[in-house]
């Protein structure tokens, strides 16, 4: 009975007017949400549609008939007969005053800011025709904090909105960022002002994805790529992660989730890369090794549950928080790092190009990939397998720098021999995709039978933790999938208590997986993540080969170079080890 009452209450509608326009919305709707229904964008900074309400900045203040004070549109629920006004003199004066106060405490070096022309504060100042601050500057001269390969902090650009704090604490469950001090001295910082990498931070970059200004950004390596491209002695190759091709178009006015693979390849070739390869190839290679490792543990004994290790933010999290459980991680490197190892061994052997002349560049949706590439385990003989990692946002900068009209570019194909990827490789970018790709190969290798239905629907979707049971004939395998580190902690605490029922676990650090990575275009929301996820499954559905072990280029690689999965050479190049972090990394 109570459920029926609650359901009826959810459907109760409220009638109000906003700027004299009548509107009907469900009870519980906030003023800001109601205004959007009729095309009114109430200005805001601390508000983010995927975060709980903060009501810090008060920029969304509106006038409501009968109320003496302005109300925050982000946090105030509508009521029957409410009359809202979003553009009265007192509302506008309040909003302008708030922006003026923010500008007085904000470095105004917009032209040299990484977020120039893509900054919420800059956009709002333009909207309100604020050309300069009329208040004296109270900006504290604080240097940019560059202490790791992935994330840069600029305290002088912080507007104390709290978005980064909420992303770190509520989404990732880490709380590496917090408020310090009080009143006008309040700042957003780390515990004891330590560098991010010396805190619980895993460099996932979710803070940079929600920051409205340039206070937290990725470390920019575009100049290093341009220098390499302009060096005639260097052979510069690039690999591109699957989730980049369904996010890149966002920055060029295309629909969220639009598949732009062909235009992306053309853009990279026009930028001057000698070869453009597909990280999906590396993903297929990862499945060959990871699936073989799982089968080896099943047949010969090993640590269970085995957990995927292709998400660097997740690996950092485990090393820092559950360092005694690194044996659960698959020893298989990530697709990016496997590709890098092959690019510095098999590729020069195949092409005759000296390895010292090859520069490997990776385009990734992830800031933590910069950290992964710098790890000493990801190289040999004093040479890193991946020389430079760019985020999707950095690739956008390069495309704009060269002046390409991206949406009008013709389509091109990836180059050979490292450019072919299957549908299994494509879905690596979505939460559940690594598990599904692995299960396609595990099932056929273990049972010797052809898998009739390749779609494992139970491991798909945006639910925080998913589980499934797969019948392998002589036994059943129970698997789990988690995205965000808050959910990863739940599964790890099960293992810690020796209560985990699973054989195989996939964990991705970012919401939705790589499609929601910390290096994706600014403006990424959960709604957009879901569209990108659907696009990756569309790519998978439309490819002629959807199983990693049927990739002809992978078959050739093993035949000509690696021998077989888990061979001595495969272990040397494609596997690694992880360890409990008890000392600081220095770069």
Question: What report would you give on this structure?
Answer:
It is a single chain. By secondary structure, this protein is of the alpha/beta class. The protein has three domains: 2-87, Roll (Ubiquitin-like (UB roll)), CATH 3.10.20.740; 111-218, Alpha-Beta Plaits; 222-574, Rossmann fold. The protein is built from 20 helices and 19 strands. It has helices at 2-10, 31-37, 89-104, 120-127, 163-171, 206-210, 222-229, 261-271, 279-300, 312-321, 335-343, 346-351, 368-374, 392-402, 423-426, 433-447, 485-496, 526-542, 552-562, 568-574, and strands at 13-18, 21-26, 61-64, 71-72, 83-85, 151-153, 177-180, 187-190, 216-218, 235-240, 275-278, 306-307, 358-364, 379-380, 383-384, 388-391, 465-471, 476-483, 504-508. Strands 2-1-5-3-4 form a five-stranded mixed β-sheet, with helices on both faces. Strands 11-10-13-16 form a four-stranded parallel β-sheet, sandwiched between helices. It is globular, with a radius of gyration of 25 Å. Residues 1-5 have low confidence and may be disordered.
